[in-house]
Amino acid sequence: MHEQDSRRIHAEHDRDKAEQLFEQARRVEDPEQSERLRYRAERLRSRSEAELRREPGAGYDADDMDEEGPQ
């Protein structure tokens, strides 16, 4: 049960971080940097929401790590 709680807490933290990145992307004046931030935020939010919806007992997929995004 401890591992499930830890994953959930981590996913909630990632979801909050994604919202911070979206906010930062809105404030940035450079369109390319804004696009990179939005991309990272979307990936992070998607992964965290999937983890929060995951059934208890399901494993964590370390291969599904955040990518850097558009360069």
How would you describe this structure to a colleague?
By secondary structure, this protein is mostly helical. The chain contains 2 helices and no strands. The chain has helices at residues 2-27, 31-53. Helix 1 runs antiparallel to helix 2 (31-53). Residues 61-71 have a biased composition (Acidic residues).
Compact overview of the structure:
The protein has 71 residues and is mainly alpha-helical. It has two helices and no strands. The mean pLDDT is 84.
Characteristic terms for this protein:
single chain; 71 residues; mainly alpha; 69% helix; 0% strand; elongated; DUF6381 family protein; DUF6381
Shape: elongated
How much of the residues is beta strand, in percent?
under 5%
Tell me how many strands there are: 0
By DSSP (H or I, 4+ residues per run), the number of helices equals: 2
Order of helix and strand elements from N to C terminus: HH
- Mean of all residue-level pLDDT scores: 84
Judged by helices, strands and strand pairing, the structural class is mainly alpha
**Could you tell me how far the N terminus lies from the C terminus, measured between alpha carbons in angstroms?**
40 Å
Structural Rg? 14 Å
| Low-pLDDT segments, ≥5 res | none
The residue fraction in helices comes out at: 55-70%
Largest sheet: none
